[in-house]
Structures
1.
Amino acid sequence: MSRLISLIEAVVAFFAKIAAALVVVLSLLILYQAINRYIFNDSSVMIQEIQWHLFDIIFLLGLSYALQVDKHVRVDIFYAHFSDKTQAIINLISQLFLILPFVGIILYTGYTLVEMSYLQAEISPDPGGLTHRYLIKAMILVGFILLGLQSLAEVYKNILIIRSSK
């Protein structure tokens, strides 16, 4: 089981590196767009939409990594003072009753969203915008699959902490 957890965490870390590289790409696109707009008085809807989609991808791929490295949002004012076992119990409950059900709902509804987008050959409503909108919508599924896998890894790790604290 530990090997499976290590594999999940390696996959999540790999996608986090992709997200980090995309931050650089996004920054360069923003710079390009700003130069084009303010120096050459030109603008591209396609480049602007790519920027939005890259931001979305960075966020979606970063969700699971934030969970992995324990940098997600939490009220640490009380949590930090709890014992390791109490923290593990809180983490376990939040994984089982908050994160995993939410991931399930997003995956269930998201699949239909992607499927409809693909079948309708959905494109941007803006002239010069992007085509193949199902691809960006599919990233919702990828991001939440990664989040679900990392959440399962966290469940396992917290169970180990609870068992060892007896």
2.
Amino acid sequence: MKRAAFVILTLMLGSVLSFAGAGRDNAAGGTSAAKPQPLTILWTRNTIMDGHELIFAELEKKYNIRPELEIRVGGAEGETIVKTRLASGDMSDVFIFNTGSKINDINPERNCVDLSADYGTKVDDLYRASSSVNGKLYSVPVDYSAQGGAIYYK
């Protein structure tokens, strides 16, 4: 269910993400009477948030998935928060971190889900190279700024 929620979330953020497409798992649905399924998200304070609240509201209304957003600081302090939460097993379902050489700091093979089947052909080759370990894609782009932030799925 949470993988489907991740796919739907990233597709709904399509105005912000630099790719388009659909995931394999379409099991995210529900009735308004059912309790919304949570999807925890650890967001970086300096990530562009324009319109995300509307997307999160639509995600809950249409798919019965309730994003639970937590904002963290950026920079070295924010990186330490991510690394500590991953090491302690207390990480959100979805989180933002850097790509490139920083990807190895979070050991994505152990801490993240391989997104190759869902997004491997939908992201730019250069992005895929900076967000993959041993040929497996672990993140998707998150915003349109010059920063190298990415969304990871735990």
3.
Amino acid sequence: MKKSASPNAAAKPIAAGKSSAKHALSEAELRGMPAADYMNEAQLDFFRRRLIGMREEMLSREQGSKERLHHNETHADPADRATAEEEHFLDLRLRERESLLLRKIDESLRLIHSKDYGYCAKTGEPIGIPRLLVRPTATVCIDVKDRDEKLATHSFSAQHASRR
């Protein structure tokens, strides 16, 4: 379960030399930290930086996508017109997906600020460093994610079978 701050927490310094102002963790250092250090200030800073980088990258891609969407060309050739329409559709779909991811990034940054980042929203258990490295916006642990996906697959299969 998510550990609560102990009364001695203020007196106990975070690992020497690991404060975010002095040293940014590398991924290898992050992986090598003991489980007892889970979601300490240095780890929160690592994920804050990663999420801010993801956010900045998405915002720069969004600008290029907006420019392409607002660029209106008329094509006399039906094949060229169809290609342009397909590219337009793909840009719209990409913007929709990135908009959703941007909201997840902002929510993860909010969780970091409140010190709730890295813990499963359903069980309160740690999500785990390996999962967060792969998906920094994860809000549930892998066991919950697997269970939810199995339930969704089962539900889809049951609905599909009932339509036959």
